[in-house]
Amino acid sequence: MMKRHSSAALPPSTGGEMHEQTTGKADKSYKRPSRCSRLCSFLIIATAFSMLACHCYDYAHGGVARVEHGRASSRRSGGSPFSDPAVPPRRDTGDRKVSADNEARALAVADERRRRELCTGQYIYVQELPSRFNTDMVWDCEDLSPSKDKCKYTANGGFGPRLSGGEGGVLQKTGWYDSDELALDVIFHDRIKRYDCLTNDSSLASAVFVPFYAGLDVARHLWGHNVSTRDAMALEMVDLVTARPEWRAMGGRDHFFVAGRTTWDFRRQVDVDAEWGNKLFRLPAVRNMTAIVVEASPWDRNDAAIPYPTAFHPATDEATFFWQDRVRGLERQWLFSFAGARAEDSKSIASNLFEQCRASAACSLMECTKGPSNQCDSPASVMKLFQSSTFCLQPRGDRYTRRLAFDAVLAGCIPVFFHPGTAYVQYTWHLPKNHTDYSVYISEEDVRRNVSVEERLRQIPPDAVERMRGAIVGLIPAVTYSDTSTKLESTVNDAFDLALWGVIRKVAKMKKRIAEGRTEDEKPEMYSWKYPLLGEGQKAEDPHEWDPLFAF
């Protein structure tokens, strides 16, 4: 289990301040009584010698008070050695300062040893890049979109503005933000900065992170710019990174970066201004790297999809557990719900589902519109809808994936998918391999043949519904990007942790292939969507029910 923060990340202890030792003074004016016998004199001398020996031992070993791990302890049952006002404090000494320094060094060595044990196989090296490749874009946030103010969404480490007051009881009072679904560049970089297993030695690193905000860069130039402008910063980044010694170790195969948009914004086929996006992912050097996106290509292996950011970013494990308990116990008045709009694309089934939901007394419909009044952009409105529903319909639209699928998981609503590209072949680092454990699948062809979604859902036994809901609630941490700014240690692996583990495992497999003399992946890229689904003994060339859906 990955630990986010160790004691190395915590503020230094102030317990190193030494307690002063207690001491006593021999009375030089003391004279023996004249009537004391020799035996009495001998006893007095012996007693004085014994006291002197104890005094010297106590002085050499730090006195009655001991300092252990920055906290004072006492041999007295009362705790502090200064609780007795009759015992005056001793003066600090050079010997005690040396002892404290030695103890501090020992603690630092022990802490570093513990950190190495925790971080072995998990070290990340962060490549140096000028700020124009990342944080400068945040400062110039007014340029990120020609039609929407993106500046507020870059606040709070990319989470956006906080939502307060619980939004009418639908949300918790803390941990909720008005997050933009395309803010992953900023969110991931902010988390990397807080990652406990960073290293300045690239030879120790399991992977190299390149802090290039590829998603924000392309967003600035998607409309009204020629291909040269769209490609400029991507080409400059490649020139800088490939010139570094860290690149030469594996030819960039251990490098990764975040491009928090869909893969199609970075795969322009030809250098024609009328074509969409830039060609970042098609550059030869970048094809060796791993690009983290919110929607990956089913036919390429140099990108990997991780969940869209939702509005929930808990700061503690307890906040996550509380939310899970809450959505697990909700009474759900609707059998199913749909948040969407009539599709303009005739091939889309969204319009069909829209009409089915509107015609059903068991379905709650939220129509998504354009503009500031769009309820689908309101975290509270979406959560209210999904929290009241047992099933949530999640068709693809103009792209395979949608953020609303993760909002459904967050609400404990069982998602109903109509194409495997919406989730099953996308988020293989975060979702179970067996999709029937947590979701319902109805093919698009069935919907086009006017199969009733309501009838299909009513056929699912109640015990199966409870099992799927339990699985969905259990997935909430895996699709959540937690707020680690409080530096509280966590035992829950969230979406960031699972993404990092996915990258580390991928790089480890590459290193193994290189060690075996196989520098290139021998698997055809056209089957990239299928590889995570294969069972023991299965081959990518074997027939699969989804082959027609991903015909290359």
UniProtKB/TrEMBL annotation:
Composition skew (Basic and acidic residues), residue ranges: 17-30, 89-102
Keyword Transferase applies: yes
Region (Disordered): 1-31, 71-102
The Exostosin GT47 domain, residue ranges: 119-456
InterPro entries to which the protein is assigned, alphabetical: Exostosin, Exostosin_GT47
Membrane topology: Single-pass type II membrane protein
Chief location of this protein within or outside the cell: Golgi
Keywords associated with the record: Glycosyltransferase, Golgi apparatus, Signal-anchor, Transferase, Transmembrane
Any single GO CC term annotated in Swiss-Prot or TrEMBL for this entry: Golgi membrane
Any GO MF annotation of the entry: glycosyltransferase activity
Compartments it resides in: Golgi apparatus membrane
Similarity comment: family membership: Belongs to the glycosyltransferase 47 family.
Protein name: Exostosin GT47 domain-containing protein
Organism expressing this protein natively: Triticum urartu
Top-level taxonomy: Eukaryota, Viridiplantae, Streptophyta, Embryophyta, Tracheophyta
